[in-house]
Amino acid sequence: MVKIWSRSELNMRKVIILAETCLAVAAFLGLMTAGRLFAAPQGAKREWPPNDRSRPLPPVIAPGTSSTQEKAGAPPSDAIILFNGHDLSNWESVAGGGPAKWKVGEGYFEVAPRTGDIQTRQAYGDCQLHIEWATPNPPRGTDQDRGNSGVFLHGLYEVQVLDSYAKLTYVDGAAAYDNVTYADGEAGAVYGQYPPLVNASRKPGEWQTYDIVFHGPRFNAGGKLLRPAIMTVIHNGVLVQDHVSLTGPTAFESRPPYRVTPEKLPLTLQDHNHPVRFRNVWLRELRGEE
Ligand code: MG
To answer: For residue 264, which of 154, 157, 130, 128 has the smallest C-alpha distance?
Structure first.
């Protein structure tokens, strides 16, 4: 049956169609304006409007689990595993590049004194690194000669590993250190540059964790430094380095300047002549920040 519209019904329909058209034009103009507002200039990172459902969602990963003193935790599902608990197949000697000569125990590996530093076979760029370590128990030696090793990002920038345990009892208002050294040589220090914000050390023989975010330096084609290396370090769950800018490679009693290096370099662990242990070593390369 064909509907016969009355005059008033027809007028009402005209009003509705006009209103719908106006709304559509307004929406179109709104989109065009938003597009102009949030369109990225050529060569720049795209800016997204708030709550835009067309913005790509982040990749989904399975997070890891925390370690206990007895057992290493599981790494996140997208981590590169640098130590699988059984062998040093991902590592080599820095000197000569042959197999890493350090000792492998049950679920850990240990510095074999005087065999030299070891480094990853692969090179890595900006990254999140997780590494666990334990200094020898019973402790031996004093100052820098006690439970010393080091985690060298890019083989050049050391986060110090040392027995820096201090009892939380106080003598004349100061914590009673079991082993005293200079501030920028303690555990958690960016060696020779930045002391840790606090000393969050555990006892010798106990497993300790470092979670490090590292952004390597950048250089232009002419070798000029565009951006220094930047590090954030969390020691046993406590922030000890807060996005510090390094002055250059770390060194003993000197501050050498930067030299031009590639964006990816191996991770190095130091043989400082002490049987320090490591376990649960993994990293996640950081991408997409440029
Ligand atoms: Mg060291």
So the answer is: 154
Report cis status (omega within 30 of 0) of the bond before 138.
Answer: yes
**72 CA distance to ligand 1 centroid (A)?**
23
Which residues fall inside 5 Å of ion ligand 1, going by CB?
Answer: 148, 150, 270
CA distance 112 to 101: 7
pLDDT tens sequence across 3-33: 555 666 556 566 555 556 545 545 544 444 4
Identify the CATH homologous superfamily for domain 80-285.
Exo-inulinase; domain 1 (2.60.120.560)
284 alpha carbon to ligand 1 midpoint, in Å?
A: 23
Q: In this structure, how many other beta carbons lie within 10 angstroms of the beta carbon of residue 216? A: 24
pTM attached to this predicted model? 0.83
Distance 38 CA to ligand 1 centre (A): 48
Distance 257 CA to ligand 1 centre (A): 19
How large is the C-alpha radius of gyration of the chain? 28
* Separation of CA 219 and ligand 1 centre (Å): 27
